Amino acid sequence: KLAKKKASRAEAAATLAHRAQNDFSRCIPDGLGVKIWGPLNVEQLNSFFHGALGPSFYYSYWTNTILVGADANCMAAYEFSSGNAADTPQTMVYKLACRGFPCTPYELERLFKYCANLHVPRCDRIVAFMMISELRSVAQRLDTALQDQTMQILLEDPSYQDLLNPVQGPEDMALIEWRHIPTRFLRTKDDGMSTLRMMRAPDLKRPFDLEQIAQYVLIYGQPGLENTWQGIAVDFAYRMHWRTLFGFALCRALCANSAGKTTIVQWFVLVMARPGLYWEAVATYAAANPTQPFVAQFGANLEIQQVHVPDNQVRNFTNDDAICVLIHNRIPPDWVDHAYTYGVVYLEQQFHQPTMSLDVFQDVDDERLQRLAVYGTPPAIPNWDGW
After folding, report:
1. Where are the alpha helices (DSSP H) in the chain?
2. Residue closest to 273 by CA, chosen among 332, 231, 227, 214
3. Coil, helix or strand for 49?
4. Distance between CA 125 and CA 119 in Å, rounded?
5. Could you tell me which residue, 23 or 334, shows the higher pLDDT?
6. Residues 237-257, mean pLDDT to the nearest whole number
7. Beta 42-45 vs 34-37: how paired, if at all?
8. What is the rounded distance in angstroms from the CA atom of residue 334 to the CA atom of residue 54?
9. What are the phi and psi torsion angles at 375 (to 5°)?
């Protein structure tokens, strides 16, 4: 009996030591950021992960918590409508991993065992499985230096590789359906009779209202599905890159609506994607027209003459025509530089869903790389940069 008691105490001590060692997040890697939390100002890993979360997940800024499924929809609806933090769900998943994603090896171990337990309700196992799978997906996209201890264990420990997916059919997928797109930017129809929520198309008289364009794309562009908004970079958190929005807005301001608009826009995009090309064209124009020097537009009020090309003449529109339109409208060269990111994203998308000959895009991309070696990456306008 004495030997059994000693063995039991030793086992309990080993268990406590194991938990003490693993119930700690260790050093937070530089680069992911921290959130200061609670009255003690405790530093936590920022669970936003720079927008790397998948579309089924919701990140609560107020609580630094990640949610999925019905919990995400309820919490998002409350926070969007009230502007305040919602209470974290009191389910077993959030008791085992209080911030949704397991943040310590001990939380990972408990959540994994909970998910693998066939006696647990399948709806709870699905949520646990989604959390572990998404953490693995995020960790795989991060550089090794940015992975914390929990991520490294999840990726490297073979005991965490074979987790049975509890999702069995469409009814299970409905449990994690994402429905929390914010509606605070929407408005009812003018007749006041319809319950349909809608938003007006961005005003052509304010072509560079980028926030309005971003909201419209978010609501009607269905990010995460087949993206028809060519050139606009959207991350997993549905943020949009300002430089791509600016390039989109500039093309929209220059090109009138017509059957051939897509083709005309592409020629402007291909100018934006090649560093230094527009600068060279402006210098050539200035040398050829010494009495009419190029003076870029500036100020709050702009005058832009849109391109109107008959449908039967669209095929004759060329790269040189696009440059002439830019010069005629006195578009500043630094604007075209700023739109470089839009050109690159648009170009990359065309290799997957081409709307013109791939040879054209391949030639432009080859020239882009050559020009990068000469001019470097075109600089951004600081006030219109970032996400």
Report:
1. 2-22, 70-82, 92-96, 105-116, 122-141, 149-156, 170-173, 210-220, 242-254, 261-272, 277-288, 319-328, 333-338, 340-350, 358-375
2. 231
3. helix
4. 10
5. 334
6. 86
7. antiparallel
8. 34
9. -100, -20
Task: Report phi then psi at 240, rounded to 5.
Answer: -120, 145
For the segment 317-352, what is each residue's pLDDT rounded down to a tens digit?
989 999 999 999 999 999 999 999 999 999 888 876
**What token pair was written down for 317?**
């529109």
Provide the pLDDT for residue 181: 44
The answer to whether the CB of 217 falls within 8 A of the CB of 223 is: yes
Distance (Å, whole) CA 68 – CA 126? 10
Q: In whole angstroms, what is the distance from residue 10 CA to residue 323 CA?
A: 79
How far apart, in whole angstroms, are the C-alpha atoms of residue 149 and residue 357? Answer: 47
Residue partners of 182: CB distance under 8 A and separation at least 6: 76, 80
Picking from 133, 138, 137, 58, the residue whose alpha carbon sits closest to that of residue 99 is: 58
pLDDT score of 229: 72
Q: What is the pLDDT of residues 123-137, one digit of tens each?
A: 889 899 988 988 888
Question: CB-based contacts of 229: which residues, under 8 Å, 6+ apart?
Answer: 217, 221, 248
- Find, among 16, 40, 8, 37, the residue nearest to 106 by Cα: 16
At position 128, the amino acid (one-letter code) is A
Query: What does pLDDT average to over the chain?
Result: 78
Tokens of 193: 């009779």
Q: Rounded distance, CA 109 to CA 22, Å?
A: 9
* Residue pLDDT, tens place only, 345-379: 998 888 766 556 778 888 999 999 999 999 999 99
Q: What pTM was estimated for this model as a whole? A: 0.57
